[in-house]
Amino acid sequence: MTLNVVEIPTNVVRHLDLYRQDWDNFVAAQASNGVATNPVNEFRNVGWREFERVGFPIHRRGNELWKYTDLRGIDRAEFRSGSRSKTFDRNELAAKIPLPSEWQNLVFVDGRLDRSHSDSVGQQAGVRFDSVSSFADLGKLAQCADNAFVSLNSAFLDDGIFVDVDAGGFANKPIHLVFVTTEFDDGHRAVYPRVAASIGSGAEAMLIETHVSISDAAHLSAPVVEISLADDASLKHYRAQLDNENSYHFATTRVKQSSGSNYQSSSFSIGCSIGRNDVFTHLAGEHAVSTLHGVYLTTNRQHQDNEISTTHLAPHCTSDQYYKGILSGRSRAVFSGKITVERGAQKTDASQKDLNLLLSHGAEVDTKPSLEIYADDVKCGHGATAGYVDEDTLFYLQSRGVDYDTAQAMLIRGFAAEIISEFGDDTLREFLENQLDELMPVLQIASDTIGTA
Amino acid sequence: MTTQERLTISRESQLEDSGYKWGFTTDIEMEMAPKGVNADIVRLISGKKDEPEWMLEWRLKAFEYWNGLQLQDAEPRWAKLRYPEIDYQDIYYYAAPKSQDDAPKSLDEVDPEMLETFDKLGIPLHERERLAGVAVDAVFDSVSVATTYADQLEERGIIFCSFTEAVQKHPELVQKYLGSVVPYTDNFFAALNSAVFSDGSFVYIPPGVRCPIELMTYFRINTEGTGQFERTLIVADEGAYVSYLEGCTAPIRRTSQLHAAVVELVSLDRGEIKYSTIQNWYPGTKDGQGGVYNFVTKRGITGNDAKISWTQVETGSAITWKYPSVILRGDNSVGEFYSVALANNYQQADTGTKMIHIGKNTKSTIVSKGISAGHGENTYRGGVKILPGAENATNHTQCDSLLVGDQCGAHTVPYIEVRNPTARLEHEASTSKVSDEQLFYLMARGISEEDAHHMIITGWSRDVINELPFEFALEAGQLLKVSLEGAVG
To answer: In this structure, which of A28, A112, A256, B401 has its CB flanked by the most CB atoms within 10 Å?
Structure first.
C-alpha cells in the first residue's frame, strides 16, 4: 500500500555547463585565497548537487509553488558570475537610493561587501558584523532541498554578511544593506547575495535591504536572507526591490521566531522583469508576532510574484499577511499566501489579505490566499479582492474641480500609502513615496480602465 | 460472467458504524463482467446496452485516452487527499441486476427485492406512494431500474429517462451535448467514466417549458467490488427551467468502492438549472476502513441570461474529490455554488467549485461551509477565473470552516485569476469553532450538549441548506446530525 506523494518533476538546466564552469572557478579561487574551510566547501557542494538535481522549475504542471510564474526565459539566458565588477562612483549610487549618515550603510557590489562604498563598521555597541559562515543556523532556515535559487546561492556562498545583535542590545542605527548589481562585460551577470541575522534575547534592530542595478543590463539576482529571533527579540525588516526592468530577482527570506519575538516586515517591489519575493516565517515560540506586509507595483510586461508563508508551530501567536498590488500595462502579479496552523497551536490569531488594483486591460493578477489549519481553537480569516479605481470616488473628486489625472493619481497613491506609511524610518518612507510619484506617469499612461469602463 | 461471494456486514454486527442506516446490502442476482478494464470490457458494456456505433467509438476513444494517462501515471494527485493506490484492474466495471436483461416494462415487473431496497431508502418508486411532486429515476449499481412520472412529463415534451434509453430514443440530443461540457479529455476520472459509464440520467426541457415537478435520481452502489460510473446530462433549452435532485447511498463494506461520475449541465439562453445533491455514500468505519472513493466531475455551461446553481450537502464518502463548476459563457449569465461538506472520523473531502467568467456582466456567488470533526480533513479548493472579455464580471466568495475537536483539519485554497480590470471580486473566509458561550446559552435553557452543538452547526450551515428544495432540506439537517454523532459532547 503506497500513499500518494506529490512529486515535483526535476528539470535539466539548459546551460548547466556554464554554471558548472563558473562554480568550479569560484571554488578554485576561494581555495587559492586560503579562505575555503572544509565545512564551507561542503556547504557549497551540497548546494551545487541540489541545483544540478532540481534545476530551474520550468515544468510547472503539478508544481503549486510555480503555478503562475514562467521561468523558461531564465533557463534560456546565459547568466555568468565571477568576472570583475564595474566600478562606479558613490555619488552615482547616492543618486539612486538614500545613503544617509544616520544609517549604517553597507554596500555590496555583485554580492561582495565593498568597504570603499560602505560606512566603517563596529561603532555600534552590541552589534557585530561578520562573515555569514559564522551564523550557527546557516542553511538550516533556508534549505536547498527542491529549491533551485537557494541551492545556487548556497553553491556560490561567499562572505556575505552576518548581523549579530547581542542579547538585550539595541541597534540605534538602522542597518542598511545595499545590494548593487553592475554590468557584465559580455553576457548577463548572476549574483548570489547572502545575509544572516541573529537578534538576541530582548534585542531590537532595524534592517533595511535595498536591491538596485547600476546599469540597465539584465542580471539574475538570487539573494537569500536567514533571520533568527531569540525570545522577545524585535526586528523591523524593510525591503526595497528596485532592480532594473530587464533583470530577474528571486529573493528568499526565512525567519525563525522564538517566544514573544516580533518580526515586522514591509516590502516595496517595483523592479525587475520577473521578480519573486519568497518569505517564510516559522512561529516556534508562544506569543510571537509576525507581520508580513508589502506593496507591489507593476507596469509594461513586468511580472511580480509574492510567495508568502507563515507557519504557526506554537500556541498564542499572531500573524498578519497583508499585500497590495497596483498593476498596469500588460503586467502580471501573483500573490500566493499560506498560513499553516499546526496541531496544538491553539489560540492562533492569523489574518491574510491581498488587495489589487487593476489599471488596465491586459494586466493580470493571480491570487491564492490559502489556509491550512489543524487546531480548533483559532481565529483565522483571509480575504482577497481585485477591482479598479472606484468611479464614484473619481467622480466625487472631479466634481470638486480636481482634474482626472490628478484624481486618479490621488487614489492610486492612497491605495499604496497604507503600506508605505508603515515603513518606520522617515528618510526611507519619503524615498519610497518619491519612487511611487516617479512611477505614477508610467502607471497612468498604461492605464485604460477609467473612462472606458 | 462471474458472481461474487460477498461479505455482508449488517449494522447490527458493526456497532462502530452507528449512524449509517443506509448500510444494508440487497441480495439481488447480478450480472457482472470480469474484473478489470480494457477495450473488450468497453465493447461489452456498449454491447450490453445495444448501443449505436457512434457511442461505442466515443467510449473507445475515451478509453484510449484514459489508458494513455494511466500509462503515464497521470492520475491527479494535487488534491489534499491521501489514499492507497487504486488498482483499476481490481474493479468490476459492469454489474447490473439480472432482471434487467429482460427489461421490466413497468414497475410491476421490477424485482421486488429492488423495490424493497428503495423503500428502505425512503425512495418511493411506486407512484401511488409517491413523494408529492417528485419524479424519480433510480440507479442501482449504475443501471437505471425505474423512472417514475415519465409519461406525465412526456406530455410537456420533457424527457427524463435513463441515459441508456436516451441513447436509443434521442440519439440526436445525446450526440449533440454529450461531452460538450466535460469532454473525455477533461481529466483522468472523466476519461475513465466516458469509457465505462453504465447508465445515468438524461433530462431535456424544451424551450420555454418550466418543469412542473422536481426531478430526482437516486444512486445506489450495492455489489461489492464494483465501481459506479454514471453519467448525467441535463439540457435546459432556451427559457426552460428545471430543478434536479441527486441522492446517493451504498452498503457498508470493508473494502473501498470507486465512484467516478460525470455530470454535464447545459443551460441555453435564458435557461435555468438548479442542481441539488445530497451525497451520502458510505463514509467508512470509524477507524477509517472502507468507504466510497468519490471522484466526480460536474460542470455546467451557460448561454446568455442563463443560470446554473449547484447546491450540495456532502456528508458521505471516505474520499471526496468534487468541484461542481460553471462556465459562464453567455453574457449576463449567473453561476452559483452552495456547499456544506462534512468530514468526520477519517473522512477526507477536497471539494469546491470553479467559476469561469467569459461573458460580459457575468455574476457568480460561492458559499462554502466546511465542517471538520474527528480526524477528518476538509479542504475547500475553488477557482474564480475572469477572462479578458468578461467586462464587469462580479464574484463573491465566502468560505467558512468549522472545526470540532483538535485532531481534524480545515483548509482553504482559493485560486483567483483576474484578467479584466473592470471585474469586481471579493473573497472572504473565516475559521471558527462552536463557541463555549453559544453552547452555554443553549444548555442553560435545558438543551443537551449534543443538541446544542447540532443546532449551532445547522444554523451555521443555514445559508446553504436553505437553497435546497424543502424535502431535501429536512433530510440534509438530519444527515448532518447523524453524521456528527459522537463527534461532539
So the answer is: B401
Q: Which residues, 6+ apart, have CB-to-CB distance to A329 below 8 Å?
A: A298, A299, A300, A301, A302, A360, A362, A363, A446
Grid cell 465505462 in the structure block, residue: B196
Closest chain B CA to residue A354: B427
Q: Which whole-number Å values give the CA distances from B463 to A122, A354, B458, in the listed order?
A: 63, 26, 10
Separation in Å, CA A204 to CA A126, A129, A281? 10, 16, 18
Q: Which residue of B has its CA nearest to A353?
A: B428
DSSP string, A369-425: EEEEE--SS-EEEEEEEEE---HHHHHHHHHTT--HHHHHHHHHHHHHHHHHTT---
Tens digit of each residue's pLDDT (9 = 90 or more) over A23-73: 999 999 888 876 556 788 999 999 999 999 999 998 877 788 999 999 999
Q: How far is CA A119 from CA A90, A116, A178, in A?
A: 11, 8, 12
In whole angstroms, how far apart are CA B15 and each of B19, B194, B292?
A: 9, 38, 19
**Mean pLDDT per 10-residue section of chain B, whose length is 489 residues:** 29 43 65 87 92 96 95 87 89 72 50 60 49 59 64 88 91 96 96 92 95 81 74 96 82 75 97 92 84 94 98 90 97 97 93 97 96 94 96 94 92 95 90 88 92 89 87 78 72
Q: How many domains does chain A have?
A: 1
Q: Does any domain span residue B35?
A: yes
Nearest Cα residue in chain A from B361: A453
Instruction: Give the gap in angstroms from C-alpha B403 to the nearest C-alpha of chain A.
Output: 5
Domain assignment of residue B137, given as a range: 15-322
> Tell me, what's the pLDDT at A2?
40
Interface test with B, best of A4, A63, A305, A377 (most B CBs within 10 A): A4
Report the alpha-carbon distance of residue A366 to residue A159 in Å, rounded. 37
**Most B CBs within 10 Å: which of A64, A371, A377, A391, as the mutation test of the B interface?**
A371
Residue B488 forms part of a structural domain: no
B414:A370 CB<8 A: yes
A30 found inside a domain: no
Give the structural domain span for A141: 85-390
B337 located within any domain: no
What distance in Å separates residue A360's CA from the closest CA in chain B?
6
Contact between chains at B426 and A367 (C-beta distance less than 8 A): no
Residue B426 near chain A (CB below 8 Å):
yes
How far apart are the C-alpha atoms of A312 and A318, rounded to whole Å? Answer: 9
Distance from the A319 Cα atom to the nearest Cα atom in chain B, whole angstroms: 15
**Could you give the number of structural domains in chain B?**
1
pLDDT given at position B37: 92
Query: In chain B, what is the greatest distance between 2 CA atoms, to the nearest angstrom?
Result: 68
The pLDDT of residue B474 is: 77
In a domain, B387, yes or no: no
Residue in B with minimal Cα distance to A340:
B411
Please name every residue paired with A240 in a beta bridge, in sequence order, or none if there are none: A210, A268
Between chains, do B421 and A374 touch, taking CB under 8 Å as contact?
no
Predicted-complex ipTM score: 0.88
On chain B, the residues whose CB falls within 8 A of the CB of A368 are: 413-416
CB contact under 8 A, A383 and B81: no
* Cell 508610467 -> residue: A442
Q: Do B410 and A373 touch (CB under 8 A)?
A: yes
Across the interface, of A4, A358, A385, the residue whose CB is closest to B82 is A4
Average pLDDT by stretches of 10, chain A with 453 residues = 48 89 92 74 95 90 88 91 86 95 95 92 82 95 96 95 93 94 88 97 97 94 98 98 96 98 97 96 98 96 97 98 96 96 95 94 94 93 87 90 92 95 96 96 77 39
| A/B interface, count of CB pairs below 8 Å | 130
**Residue A313: inside a domain, yes or no?**
yes
Rounded-to-integer distance, Cα A115 and Cα A138, Å? 23
